[in-house]
């Protein structure tokens, strides 16, 4: 998904208690961004972007509760967009101990170049059309990134989730917890999606039509990757998981569970895979494309063998997809 031109309007401004300061920019208007601020999207300021400045109060001291909340809801939400650009604030991350560092609530919301340290959840999103890129969360007590969307894969208006170049380090839960459909995850401007030393595991992805490439999971307390897709429909961009590395995770390296739609025959010929094996839809069986080493755990019963890699467990869910099921896909 390409980055849209994004729009927003502030629902509340907080004063700087009598002292002057530089500020972030809302379009061409200086805006002091503070902890606990809520930004409401509407048609008035459509096309503008909130850009943080290093002197913004939200970057100057830890937040007592949540950080910044963005909301895009209502009858016109589908036609509205918003972005926050933290301008790679690594030296001055958004810090906190409770709540959510950055919350994107609703449709078509984006966060770029944001560093978040602490909070309960670092960056959270709830809505289709989210776009989170080149951002990092560390030291959250729960998940680093929590990205959710209820839009079904069969919805003709689904936009999907763009999620590239993000990093999750040292969080108490999952590095990336993503129950969503049509995720496009890959390399950002500088990094792959990387999960390192997270308590519950690296990546937990539950949804359909997800396209993940170039992700890495190291030293996590559970699985490096746990990916589950239960639908026979793989969406407009297909279902795909490739170019992944999992190493030194306490749990399994990679568990990939999906349906068999008849498209992933390995070592055989013909529509019934004569002489071969059907792997779950979208799982890359190219030698070296998916690799794992020094991970723990034992593959669940029913897992298919995969090049003797350490802790890579492809699993076919349910019965093979029938033609009737495939015909109902958009």
Tally of helical runs: 2
The Rg value, from CA coordinates, equals 21 Å
Strand order of the largest sheet: 1-4-6-9-12-15-18-21-24-27-31
Question: The biggest beta sheet, please?
Answer: 11 strands, mixed
Strand coverage percent: 35-45%
Number of strand elements: 31
Helix share, percent: under 10%
Mean pLDDT: 88
Q: From the helix content, strand content and strand pairing, which structural class follows?
A: mainly beta
Tell me the distance between the termini. Answer: 19 Å
Q: Stretches where pLDDT falls below 50 for ≥5 residues?
A: 1-22
What is the domain total for the residues?
A: 2
The general outline is: globular
Structural summary, described in words:
- 3% of the residues lie in helices and 36% in strands.
- With 330 residues, the chain is mainly beta.
- It has two domains: 1-119, no CATH class; 155-330, no CATH class.
- The strands form four sheets. The protein has an eleven-stranded mixed sheet with strand order 1-4-6-9-12-15-18-21-24-27-31, with no helix packed on it. A ten-stranded mixed sheet has the order 3-2-5-7-10-13-16-19-22-25, with no helix packed on it.
- The longest helix is centred in the last third of the chain and has 5 residues, at 323-327.
- It is globular and about 65 Å long.
């Amino acid at each position: 998904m390409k980055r849209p031109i994004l729009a927003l309007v502030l629902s509340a401004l907080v004063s700087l208690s009598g002292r002057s300061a530089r500020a972030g920019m809302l379009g061409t208007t200086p805006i002091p961004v503070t902890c606990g601020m809520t930004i409401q999207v509407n048609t008035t300021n459509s096309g503008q972007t909130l850009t943080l400045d290093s002197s913004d109060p939200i970057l100057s001291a830890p937040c007592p509760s949540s950080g910044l909340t963005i909301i895009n809801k209502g009858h016109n939400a589908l036609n509205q967009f918003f972005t926050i650009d933290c301008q790679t604030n690594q030296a001055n991350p958004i810090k906190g101990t409770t709540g959510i560092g950055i919350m994107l609530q609703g449709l078509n919301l984006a966060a770029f170049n944001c560093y978040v340290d602490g909070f309960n959840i670092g960056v959270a999103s709830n809505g289709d059309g989210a776009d989170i890129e080149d951002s990092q969360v560390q030291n959250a007590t729960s998940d680093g990134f929590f990205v959710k969307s209820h839009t079904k894969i069969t919805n003709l208006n689904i936009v999907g989730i763009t999620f590239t170049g993000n990093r999750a380090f040292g969080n108490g839960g999952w590095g990336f917890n993503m129950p969503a459909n049509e995720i496009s995850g890959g390399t950002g401007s500088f990094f792959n999606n990387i999960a390192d030393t997270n308590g519950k595991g690296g990546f937990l992805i539950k949804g359909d039509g997800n396209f993940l490439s170039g992700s890495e999971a190291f030293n996590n307390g559970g699985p490096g990757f746990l990916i589950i897709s239960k639908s026979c429909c793989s969406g407009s961009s297909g279902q795909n998981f490739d170019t992944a590395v999992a190493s030194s995770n306490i749990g399994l390296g990679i568990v990939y569970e999906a349906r068999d739609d008849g498209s992933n025959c390995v070592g055989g010929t013909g529509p019934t895979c004569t002489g071969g094996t059907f792997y779950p839809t979208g799982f890359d069986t190219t030698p070296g494309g998916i690799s794992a080493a020094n991970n723990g755990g034992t593959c669940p019963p029913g897992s298919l063998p995969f090049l003797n890699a350490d802790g890579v467990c492809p699993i076919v869910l349910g019965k093979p997809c029938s033609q009737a099921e495939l015909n109902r896909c958009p």
